[in-house]
From TrEMBL, chains A, B:
UniProt keyword annotations, A-Z: DNA-binding, Phosphoprotein
Protein source organism: Micromonospora saelicesensis
Biological process terms in GO annotation: phosphorelay signal transduction system; regulation of DNA-templated transcription
Residue ranges constituting the Response regulatory domain according to the UniProt record: 9-125
Location of 4-aspartylphosphate modifications: 60
GO molecular function: DNA binding
Residues in HTH luxR-type domain copies: 140-205
Superkingdom of origin: Bacteria
Phylogenetic classification of the source organism: Bacteria, Bacillati, Actinomycetota, Actinomycetes, Micromonosporales
Protein name from the UniProt record: Two component transcriptional regulator, LuxR family
Pfam families documented for this protein: GerE, Response_reg
Length: 210, 210
DNA sequence: CGGCTGCCCTGACAAATGTCACGGTCGGAG
DNA sequence: CTCCGACCGTGACATTTGTCAGGGCAGCCG
């Protein structure tokens, strides 16, 4: 199954040190895999990758410094030969789409059995694509974001919890305009509240780009 | 440091299979530790513990079926000799307090370096208490919940996102009363919104007891 | 060009949310 | 017993939020 030649070099990126170390232990059990680098922040991925030249990078989505998706783009641009496998905590439908668009070769949720991870790494290294089938179905169902640019921006700013007047000031808009965008977003997401709309949009990954 | 006699028997409970397996791999590297059981739901902890008789149980807080805190109580009641080490994703200040009240011997966040985990397990097994010092400080700062029982209940129900009228119907109260409790909670949490108050209360672990 | 669509912006209006003052009950302290 | 404080419950009131109709501006197609 795995040649006895040079092992696959791995970079791990996860903000939770315990999980990172545990994954390293798990993957190191495989003879054809070797962990050459570990980082805890998204903005450390590219510098560390330049130094250690991994074959495959395992990136978490939720990370400080830089989004896992953004880190994927940056890494693909900096080291095109390095494949990316995104390993995320919870399978927000839109994350998969964004990750693939950013150049990831695989997408795995942390619910999957541990034994499958090594196989996923090998498949990605071989140039194949790896996706959770059920998650892929959900992604197709969720579709692309129906929100317009302004609506997304307003909703994103509204996460902070300020009042409509605050948002208006922050975005240099009239208070009524802000409320109108919010209303449109509420309608499109099928929510009842502003808070509800934020939840739905976040769950679908429609608020990503920082 | 560790005697060559019988190893410490461990039970792992975490809803993310990948993390669970990775932790098992990490801990199995230690000669004096052995993982005898793994479960993915809170309500499977006690039955599985009865069967496998572990010395120490590592429980995540966020789990389906039964809260990690509640699982701690249940496990302490069922097998008093089994120590509990709570290993949680994010260190909500109030979680620590609740976990200790429920009978946990230790509380570790997943940000801690992987090498310390095995030591934490050994300390817990030896009858010592293990807590993250910075988290302990935060917990004291956050203090006990200032919310009254009704306020907590209303806030907890409000998480679903319904309108005040919905809450009133669900709780058999007047709509005005619901708004009043909400208002009190908003004041006590220092929030501006209902949504804000929910966030703050959740972050401090004041909404736990299901 | 004229018509059309889609997005952005805005103010007026209705509905919800948050605040306030008040009354009732229970338990402990003086 | 009486007072006092804490909690619960309620309605009236001001503020905020969500909805609606409509105007302005770009791009696209006939």
């Amino acid at each position: 199954m795995s040649g006895g030649s040079t092992p696959i070099r791995l970079l791990l990126a996860d903000d939770q040190a315990l999980v990172r170390g545990a994954l390293a232990a798990l993957l190191s059990l495989e003879e054809d895999l070797t962990v050459v680098a570990e980082v805890g922040r998204g903005d450390e991925v590219v510098p560390e990758a330049r130094r250690s030249a991994p074959d495959v990078a395992l990136l978490d989505v939720e990370m400080p410094g830089l989004d896992g998706i953004a880190a994927t783009s940056a890494l693909r641009a900096a080291l095109p030969t390095c494949r990316v496998l995104v390993v995320t905590t919870f399978g927000r439908p839109g994350y998969l789409r964004r990750a693939m668009e950013a150049g990831a070769s695989g997408f795995v949720v942390k619910d999957t059995p541990a034994r499958q991870l090594a196989d996923a790494v090998r498949r990605v290294h071989a140039g194949l694509r790896v996706v959770d089938p059920t998650l892929a179905a959900e992604t197709l169902a969720a579709g692309v974001s129906p929100l317009t640019e302004r609506e997304t921006e307003v909703l994103r700013t509204a996460r902070g919890g300020g009042s409509a007047a605050d948002l208006a000031r922050a975005l240099h808009l009239s208070e009524g305009t802000v409320r109108n965008h919010l209303s449109a977003a509420i309608g499109k997401t099928g929510a009842r509240n502003r808070a509800d709309a934020i939840r739905v949009a976040e769950q679908n990954g429609w608020l990503l780009g920082e």
